[in-house]
């Protein structure tokens, strides 16, 4: 319509002497109309074509890892950190090179985290090739994660900054390094925080885990996977100690539900793709370089500051207890699981035969009431805590945990050696050194 309107005014335009041919006036006007019509159609289609090209460009996946553009660093949208490029690949290969365990190269996800940093360091110290991966999220102080990263870097462990949900990054990592093992410790941790930010648990513990398993499935060779499940999968069970054979279908928190889902997802990838997978159910891990969101950590902070702490109690003032497990014992369990892991059987995403599938409790086998934890802290800190007792809120907490570790003992030679008082002593020593003297003077052990 508008095109017709625009053209109609041409009828009344006086023609210029040079171009106007009076003997064919109608033909001239017709050609002019045709010409303008063609021009506007051409403009319209060109515009459409350009818009389409721009749209396709924006939607197109980044160039394949083998293409030359990968020699340029790439920027993570979330964190702003970059990855890729020749220098980056060089650092990756150097970190991945084993020193005394020929052919053993481990990708540790969550390497700047509490358990991840300790495991990475132990692997490196005994000579394994180790590459870390961490997104340095701000669930708790990223400064603590950076301090752990600095320590690891001094020991020759390079932590790639990125998210397990970044498919391209994972593909690139497996293209550059033929990882023999993946120690998957990246997760959204914390039982109570799931009430505040449920989607972060789905993002990391489910979507991120599936993304990682997809990358492992397609990798050549397929790595063996060892990953962190949780004691929380036992949920509301009342039979103690918790055994791997017990039911795990009544989780008390979304955190627990995502870890339980992880176990089921792991089984699927083992069954379909021949991935060798070992799940480790950690029981309330504590120690130096720990997580500030955990009770023993913020109780210490608040006791020292003279701030009140809240201690939860069960019905009729019964105590709430945890099978607190010291970090060094957990690290030994992780390494035992890695050392006994069999190879995955698949290749090119296809299963070639049945692959190993295991689940182990890694606990301490001696639950301690939270009131006792506080008493030990008061003794070590030489400060009386300002305590407030409150009934256990319905926010994901369970009343007690207690691990049966006989399976881990027989298969991994797992044998926890640190009681809560000895472990907290080491934690308090580290805490005071780290927060009074700064991170540089604190070492791992
Ligand atoms: O084994 C696990 O799989 C989980 O262990 C850990 O969870 P939890 O055992 O709940 O540890 P944590 O929060 O330190 O509370 C310890 C105790 O203090 C009590 N508690 C807590 C807070 C408070 O203010 N008062 C209190 O009494 C509270 O009731 C509890 O009895 C990890 O955080 C989790 O990521 C997961 O790994």
TrEMBL record:
<feature type="domain" description="NAD-dependent epimerase/dehydratase">
    <location>
        <begin position="106"/>
        <end position="343"/>
    </location>
</feature>
<keyword id="KW-0333">Golgi apparatus</keyword>
<keyword id="KW-0520">NAD</keyword>
<keyword id="KW-1133">Transmembrane helix</keyword>
<keyword id="KW-0472">Membrane</keyword>
<keyword id="KW-0119">Carbohydrate metabolism</keyword>
<feature type="region of interest" description="Disordered">
    <location>
        <begin position="1"/>
        <end position="22"/>
    </location>
</feature>
<comment type="subunit">
    <text>Homodimer.</text>
</comment>
<feature type="region of interest" description="Disordered">
    <location>
        <begin position="64"/>
        <end position="83"/>
    </location>
</feature>
<comment type="similarity">
    <text>Belongs to the NAD(P)-dependent epimerase/dehydratase family.</text>
</comment>
<feature type="transmembrane region" description="Helical">
    <location>
        <begin position="38"/>
        <end position="59"/>
    </location>
</feature>
<dbReference type="InterPro" id="IPR001509">
    <property type="entry name" value="Epimerase_deHydtase"/>
</dbReference>
<keyword id="KW-0413">Isomerase</keyword>
<dbReference type="Pfam" id="PF01370">
    <property type="entry name" value="Epimerase"/>
</dbReference>
<dbReference type="GO" id="GO:0032580">
    <property type="term" value="C:Golgi cisterna membrane"/>
</dbReference>
<dbReference type="InterPro" id="IPR036291">
    <property type="entry name" value="NAD(P)-bd_dom_sf"/>
</dbReference>
<keyword id="KW-0812">Transmembrane</keyword>
<protein>
    <recommendedName>
        <fullName>UDP-glucuronate 4-epimerase</fullName>
        <ecNumber>5.1.3.6</ecNumber>
    </recommendedName>
</protein>
<dbReference type="GO" id="GO:0050378">
    <property type="term" value="F:UDP-glucuronate 4-epimerase activity"/>
</dbReference>
